[in-house]
Write a structure and sequence with these properties.
Length: 307
């Protein structure tokens, strides 16, 4: 059985459109897709209809904590391929190319990109584990459990798991051979353009929205990273099929539901407060009905992209 565990953290009252789009595509390549998210009030009726199981868990341990909690409930002996994926990327085309690469590779453990920061490892936003080592990966999770500190999670899981497998002679590697991979830069961010040009159907959400944490921004400023590069235009040129995938709608809905800063919205536009719009629900309703057409910003860091 081919199983995909998809982890997602959000405070939104809806499941974002880009996630539903991603899950539906993953379902084509797995016998079961399990959507794992933090405890919150959110409707999963659509996911139920699609045959996607939802499991709510306490928010601890980041993605690896979510995966750990579900892994320990599964009959690991029935799994022939295991995918561990999170919600940090936007899918804009089909996954055929990715899973064709998985099938044709001799890797036991693979992902989209690798990093050599601290030590060689597969970046954990998209991981695929083949049958020969599923038990080894499972045991590694069970031995480590949940870590609360992000740095420890990265060292013990993202880097540690890759190193654990390498030391035991298993083959790990990236599905895309990029021109360079060097310390100090996040491969999935710094080489996002090259990934798309080489047929990768995923882009980091923070790259698409040009929304980075302060420490990431400082690092990228020291490189030749193009903050004003139009990734949407590149995606459209390289992947004309996305028009039928509703990429523009996916992007807009992702921005609206997941990055809408309602307090910023009503405090920036005083006319809204004067009109009695003082709650998150009222602010989002106003934006969807009027604000979007009026070109109002939804957060301080929002970049308005040209259509």
């Amino acid at each position: 059985m081919k199983i995909c565990l998809f982890s997602s953290y959000s405070t939104s009252l809806v499941i974002d459109n880009y996630i539903i789009f991603y899950l539906k595509e993953l379902l084509r390549f797995h016998n079961q897709v399990i959507f794992i998210t933090n405890e919150r009030k959110v409707s999963v009726i659509l996911l139920d209809k699609l045959g996607i199981k939802t499991i709510f868990v306490k928010n601890e341990g980041y993605d690896f904590g979510m995966w750990y909690k579900v892994l320990k409930t599964l009959d690991i002996n029935t799994i022939t391929r295991l995918s561990l994926i999170n919600d940090s990327c936007v899918l804009f085309s089909k996954l055929n190319n990715i899973f064709k690469k998985v099938k044709n590779s001799d890797f036991d453990y693979c992902g989209i990109t690798k990093s050599i920061d601290f030590a060689e490892h597969i970046q954990s936003y998209f991981l695929v584990i083949k049958k020969p080592i599923i038990k080894h990966v499972y045991n590694y999770f069970m031995d480590n459990g949940i870590y609360e500190d992000l740095q420890t999670v990265i060292l013990k899981y993202e880097i540690g798991l890759s190193q654990h497998l390498i030391k035991r002679g298993f083959k790990i590697g990236p599905l895309f051979n990029l021109s360079k991979s060097f310390k100090g830069n996040n491969t999935s961010v710094y080489l996002a353009k090259e990934l798309i040009e080489n047929g990768c159907p995923l882009i980091k959400k923070k790259v698409l929205l040009n929304s980075f944490k302060d420490d990431e921004t400082l690092v990228l400023h020291k490189t030749k990273y193009e903050f004003d590069f139009d990734y949407i235009d590149l995606i459209k040129n390289k992947n004309p099929i996305i028009c039928s995938f509703g990429f523009k709608k996916t992007t807009i809905e992702m921005i609206e539901s997941n990055d809408f800063d309602w307090k910023y919205y009503i405090n920036t536009y005083i006319d809204l407060r004067n009109a009695g719009i003082l709650t998150e629900k009222a602010a989002l309703e106003h934006y969807n009905k009027f604000g979007k057409k009026e070109g109002r910003k939804i957060s301080e860091n929002q970049i308005i992209k040209k259509s």
